[in-house]
Write a structure and sequence with these properties.
- It is a single chain.
- The protein has a 7-stranded parallel beta sheet with strand order 7-8-6-9-11-12-13.
- The chain contains 11 helices and 26 strands.
- With 640 residues, the chain is an alpha+beta fold.
Length: 640
């Protein structure tokens, strides 16, 4: 069922087991009156009639999978009940119906939403000078030069023209005078109300302003004396309204992610599972299928680009417990504040690829992200990793204009190679270099996106080589995790050398782990590559008290070994960190590596890095020799 790239049967089985994880007891959960119905071949055209005969006023063919349809009522109240005989059972007996699945309701939250209490802001003047994340001159107590370097990209003539970005959120105020000219109505849809008009639902507290703010960051029109300027101010923005209902469903998520993939280039998502420090959750089966189809088939086969906010759980959470942000198919974006430090709500994890900007820590009224707001208004108070993801989508739009042939993987490579440390500072995690010399940070990824550097490299970029996947090894025996020490396991691999799916240069690495603990939040997982790069796969989550579920075939992902040679011995450390001793058992560690068999630019990086190492070692030897000569001279003088 899954549309993977060059996956053999064994890899498909492992991936499906790794990704379709147990989320909870549906029987006691919230079920909707929306059904996923698969019809037998030859009955597809009868879908509307089948729906009506069984009490459903509306039906929609789903673009993923064969013969799949969404049956739903015109008004869709959600109810808390067990599976009932009702319509589902009568449908199942229909000879035209192959299968029926009632959609469960689950929670998805907007990332970075802050209650503004309708702050009264003077909106008469343009806000470009307030947009420090575009051009940072030190305004709002920021650090000059710490920005996205969009000025260089704009100076080269790249403004996002010809690129469409979809904001998957609570809707867009497409009548806003700073968005209307760039609004792509054809590519927009409301999956919350099932109509083509994704306008936000009114609330007294303006809660549904989230999507409009994100849209302004990407595509606000330039030089019209209204609000500010979008990162890609000549791009088109589409609204996909999908967050504004009591509960999310797999059909709504999958439909949103797969909406018009030949028109939409980039999908920006500033939402995910609850950032409460104790939730472990991710995409369900249909959404996984939609993502796989997107990267395989979207944009004429070049692949849809999914940009995801990494999460707002702060030091209490770990974004590797979010199956959206930690997916290989998404570009996970974290945030920095305007002086280069981490935001208090930033989550860290080894799957984060790069960073952009959110707000300042100080209570400066102009330290937030300036953008469009509901009903034609503007705001200076947008914040969170919600603000970071659309900025990244805008930068990627500039790169796509520079080179429309970029694949989804090309964009990830460009992000790794052109992101900069700049003046980003993480007080907890130090900057490190991996085995091929690429500098990374556990929270910021490979650094802040550099729009100028990215478009220049994109112009000359050649598509990366074919991607392969290898199950590098697996340990299935049960091992106890000691309460006072750590469990250390190793897998030695040849990375499938000699086989068709040999991986020589790494992109993503997944550690599929099944582990239980008396307190899940105290578990820590670290993995070290053969080239010595240590990835923190899981940090302590002090609010997670789970003692039953643990992690069941959970695919912890790291991007920190990008470009490395995977051959050799990988080491996994499992330990507890907390105030009270805990117990646990690990049942499985399967190592999955993804990458290419050739990558010339990595070879050049390795040569440059080795040259720098050799030069630094030479300088160290010269210093040691000078010190030795000085000591000898002092000794001779003392004797005389």
């Amino acid at each position: 069922m899954f549309g993977f790239l060059r996956y053999g049967p064994m890899v498909v089985l492992v991936l499906v087991n790794a990704l379709i994880f147990a989320i909870g007891d549906t029987e006691n959960g919230i079920l909707t009156n929306h059904l996923l119905v698969q019809l037998h071949e030859g009955s597809y055209d009868e879908a509307p009639q089948v729906a009506l005969e069984h009490g459903f006023e509306s039906v929609r063919k789903l673009p993923f999978g064969d013969g799949l349809f969404h049956f739903y009522p015109q008004s869709s109240p959600l109810s808390r009940r067990k599976r009932s005989a009702g319509h589902g059972q009568s449908l199942q007996k229909d000879h035209r119906v192959k299968s029926v699945l009632q959609q469960a309701g689950f929670d998805r939250q907007k990332r970075g939403y802050r209650d503004l209490n309708q702050v009264d802001i003077n909106m008469s003047d343009p806000l470009f000078t307030k947009q420090w994340y575009l051009v940072n001159t030190g305004q709002a107590d920021g650090t000059p030069g710490l920005d996205l370097n969009v000025a260089e990209a704009w100076g080269l003539g790249f403004t996002g023209k010809g690129v469409t970005i979809a904001i998957m959120d609570d809707g867009i105020d497409y009548l806003h005078p700073d968005l209307a000219a760039n609004y792509n109505a054809e590519a927009s849809y409301d999956f919350s109300s099932n109509d083509p008009y994704p306008y936000p639902r009114y609330t007294d507290d303006w809660f549904n302003s989230h999507g409009t703010r994100c849209a302004g960051e990407v595509s606000a029109v330039a030089n019209n004396n209204i609000c500010g300027v979008g990162v890609a101010y000549n791009s088109k923005v589409a609204g996909i309204r999908m967050l504004d209902q009591p509960f999310m469903t797999d059909i709504i998520e999958a439909s949103s992610i797969s909406h018009m993939p030949q028109v939409i280039d980039i999908y920006s998502a500033s939402w995910g599972p609850t950032d409460d420090g104790k939730t472990v959750d991710g995409p369900r089966e249909l959404t996984l299928q939609a993502m796989a189809d997107g990267v395989n088939k979207g944009r004429g086969g070049k692949g849809s680009i999914y940009v995801w906010a990494s999460g707002d759980g702060g030091s209490y959470d770990d974004c590797n417990c979010d199956g959206y942000a930690s997916s290989m198919w998404t570009i996970s974006i974290n945030s920095a504040i305007n002086d280069g430090r981490t935001a208090l709500y930033d989550e860290s994890c080894s799957s984060t690829l790069a960073s952009t900007f959110s707000n300042g820590r100080k209570r400066n009224p102009e330290a937030g992200v300036a953008t469009t707001d509901l009903y034609g208004n503007c705001t200076l108070r947008h914040s969170g990793t919600s603000a970071a993801a659309p900025e990244a989508a805008g930068v990627f739009a500039l790169a796509l204009e520079a080179n429309p042939d970029l694949t989804w993987r090309d964009m990830q490579h460009l992000a790794v190679l052109t992101s900069k440390r700049n003046r980003l500072h993480d007080e907890v995690h130090q900057w490190q270099r991996n085995g091929v010399g690429l500098e990374f940070n556990h929270l910021f990824g490979y650094g802040v996106l550099d729009a100028g550097g990215m478009v220049k490299m994109a112009k000359e970029w050649k598509t990366v080589p074919e991607r392969f996947h290898c199950v590098a090894g697996s340990i299935q025996e049960t091992h106890k995790v000691p309460s006072e020490d750590k469990l250390v396991l190793t897998i030695t691999t040849d990375a499938c050398q000699g086989k068709e799916n040999y991986v020589r240069y790494l992109e993503h690495v997944q550690a599929v782990v099944t582990v239980n603990a008396s307190r899940r939040g105290d578990l820590n997982l670290n993995m070290t590559s053969p080239m010595g790069t240590k990835s923190i796969l899981l940090s302590r989550r002090p609010r997670d008290d789970d003692a039953k579920v643990g992690y069941d075939k959970w695919p912890f992902m790291t991007s920190h070994s990008w470009g490395e040679d995977p051959r050799g011995t990988w080491q996994l450390e499992v330990l507890f960190q907390g105030e009270v001793p805990q117990t646990g058992t690990l049942q499985e560690w399967t190592l999955m590596i993804h990458g290419t068999q050739s990558a010339p630019y990595i070879d050049q990086i390795v040569r440059d890095y080795q040259s720098k190492l050799a030069m630094s070692k030479k300088e160290e030897l010269e210093e040691e020799l000078d010190e030795a000569l000085e000591r000898s001279l002092k000794s001779l003088l003392s004797k005389n």
